[in-house]
Amino acid sequence: MGNVVEPSKIATSFDSTGKQVIMPWGIAPTVLFYREDLFQKAGIDVNSIVTWEDFIEAGKKLQAALPNTKMIGFPYTIGYSSFIRAVMLQQGTDYFDKDGNIAIYSKPGIEAAKLLQRFVKEGIAFDTTDWTGTIRASKTDDIATIPYGIWWGGTLKDQAPEMKGKWKAAYLPVLEEGQPKTSIWGRSWRIYNKCWRSYKTNSYIGICQKCYTKCRKSNDGFQKIRTFTSIYTSL
Questions:
Q1: Is residue 33 within 8 Å of residue 136, measured between CB atoms?
Q2: How far apart are the C-alpha atoms of 61 and 45, rounded to whole Å?
Q3: How does pLDDT run across 56-75, given as a tens digit for each residue?
């Protein structure tokens, strides 16, 4: 697999023989999607949002100008783990350290989780409940921003065509100036030899073979929904 897809940087992606057993299927650079029209109504310049502190202050300004609109939306009960990871990566740490040890309780992980808490405590967050609710909120004036992988633009194009021209993308804010103004919202999949649902495993492998490991299919995904493939032949 290592000569087909982007090699994993995580030690636990390899078995005892050094063989890569994780399938990274998307790199997904992270951006801040924002409603340009709502920002204009609230008098917010997106270029003035450099840090997450700036983001929170802009959220308060937006709330004052547009009481029925929240700055950011995410599902409270399900969680926003991808956001936590994205902010951890901005600080140079992933879910696992270079030795494969769990790092979610590290300082970067705690800082990322606290940031989500602040969004709620400062009154700038909207509970979208689930995936469907997030799409619904993106089609109304419920939320003004959503940090997501670049592929979210394809989701908006497909699920909210009536919002064409309203959603724009900007750099991701940072905790401290000098940190990377983007991150990764990509994912990987791992299949175990003794999977109790072998039929689902086989179905997934079939999808990988037909979609994720084919250059043309991967490029189609980029063109249509902005998925950044991890397949070498498409890069």
A1: no
A2: 11
A3: 999 999 999 999 999 999 99
Residue 24 neighbours by CB under 8 Å, 6+ apart: 5, 6, 8, 186, 187, 188, 230
pLDDT band at 196 (very low <50, low <70, confident <90, very high): very low
How far, in Å, CA of 185 to CA of 120, rounded? 22
Start-end ranges of CATH 3.40.190.10 in the chain? 30-170
**Cα gap 116→120, rounded to integer Å:** 7
- pLDDT of the residue at 235: 44
Strands (E), the chain: 22-26, 30-35, 70-74, 125-127, 143-149, 167-170, 187-190
Of all residues in the chain, the percent with pLDDT exceeding 70 is: 69
**In angstroms, how far is CA 225 from the centroid of its own chain?**
14
What is the amino acid identity at position 151?
A: W
> Who has greater pLDDT, 224 or 154?
154
Query: CATH topology for 30-170?
Result: D-Maltodextrin-Binding Protein; domain 2 (3.40.190)
Q: How many Cα neighbours within 13 Å face the side chain of 69?
A: 24
Q: Which of 26, 4, 24 is nearest to 13 (CA)?
A: 24
Which tens digit of pLDDT belongs to each residue from 157-186? 889 999 999 999 999 999 999 999 988 765
Query: What is the pLDDT confidence band of residue 228, given thresholds at 50, 70 and 90?
Result: low
